[in-house]
Amino acid sequence: MKVKCAAASMALFALAFLSYAQAPSDVIVKKDVVYGHADGVDLKLDLATPGNLKGPVPALVCVHGGGWQLGSKDGYAPYLSQFASHGYVVASVEYRLLPKYRWPAQIEDVKCAVRYLRAHAKELNIDPSEIGAIGDSAGGHLVLLLGLMDPKDDLEGNGGSPGLSSKVQAVVNLFGPTDLRVWRALPEGEPGMEKEFGKNSEQLLADLVGTSDRAAPVVLQASPVNYIDKADPPILTFHGTKDPIVPFEQAKLLHSALEKAGVRQKLVPIQDAGHGWQGPQLIDTVRQGLEFFDSVLKPAR
After folding, report:
1. Which range marks the domain in which residue 219 is found?
2. Rounded distance between C-alpha atoms, residue 55 and residue 26, angstroms
3. 169-290-180-109 Cα dihedral, nearest 10 degrees
4. Which terminus, N or C, of the chain has the lesser number of Cβ atoms within 10 Å?
5. Contact 33/105 with Cβ under 8 angstroms?
6. What is the pLDDT of residue 142?
7. Does residue 239 lie within any of the structural domains?
8. Which backbone phi and psi does 124 adopt, to 5 degrees?
9. For the residues of 44-78, what is the DSSP string, one character each?
10. For the CA atoms of 172, 177, 182, 183, what is the dihedral angle to 10 degrees?
């Protein structure tokens, strides 16, 4: 069975994780922690911390999908504790949504969340040099930017915790758009887009960046492929080969550019899957994602 929308896929992702590891009773979960302020809005995250920490551990930032206009940090709620049980401080982050808040509000907010974790690393028992990020669909797009953008690229915003790096050290990208200059849903995917978001992919792009002109500088500015260089962190992508919303070609474009730049990378095609998947494929995705984060963020541990 194929999953037709990012929200459904992440619910199934959570169920798969629950079958992979049971939450321990000593994980501490805090809801609605304010990590910044923008346009008069309190920006919030949910935080899960392993119990009985004896020293700093890596952190994971989770960013939900939903076409930059739907979804919430609650999409990761069912398995915050599971990630924490694996030895991470975990933050599920909300960000300002379309159509009220246009680009670059979304990337400014998630960058602010990373800076917040670094600013509070001591009290949260976080190793500020070891932060990873995972996101699905639009969230995949945003976590790619967290890994690929550098301070010189700006878009840090004024949400809070200034003067700290917002770059993460490992990225797991679940079927996120990578080059908006050529991204559009396949013809068979457009009806699903219109049903889910009330607009087609051209209209959604225009909502995000203010134009559907693929040659506009802002479209390149919002594209993760624009920021690749040899100093970027390892990136692992999972993408369905028959995804009608974010075509598989988007993942191939990204990983070809990463390979050319000499960045550690791996693309895992999920055969015959659409925009999300479930069952054994999904359980294996969780396993591989955690093993990847472990290998990058805590090899000495």
Report:
1. 6-297
2. 16
3. -60
4. N
5. no
6. 98
7. yes
8. -95, 0
9. EEEEEE-SS--S-EEEEEEE--STTTS--GGGGGG
10. 150
Asked if residue 138 has pLDDT above 80, the reply is yes
* pLDDT score of 300: 67
Nearest by Cα to 3 from 281, 277, 289: 277
Report whether pLDDT(224) > 50: yes
Chain mean position to CA 177:
11
Distance CA 115, CA 43 (A): 13
Tell me the two tokens of residue 274: 């659409």
Which region, left, alpha or beta, applies to residue 6 given φ > 0 means left and ψ of -120 to 50 means alpha? alpha
Contacts of 178 (CB under 8 A, 6+ apart): 141, 144, 223, 224, 225, 250, 251, 253, 254
Q: What is the rounded CA–CA span in Å between residue 28 and residue 20?
A: 20
- Nearest of 265, 269, 259, 271 to residue 239 by alpha carbon: 269
Q: Is residue 137 part of a domain?
A: yes
1 falls within a domain: no
Residue 6: pLDDT over 60? no
Is residue 286 pLDDT above 70, yes or no? yes
Cβ neighbours of residue 278 under 8 Å, at least 6 residues apart? 1, 3, 9, 12, 15, 16
As for how many domains the chain has, the answer is 1
> Is residue 16, in this structure, part of any structural domain at all?
yes
CATH code assigned at 62:
3.40.50.1820
Reported as a single tens digit per residue, the pLDDT across 66-85 is 999 999 999 888 778 889 99
- CA dihedral over 21, 170, 48, 74, signed as positive or negative: negative
Q: Which residues are catalytic, by number? A: 137, 243, 275
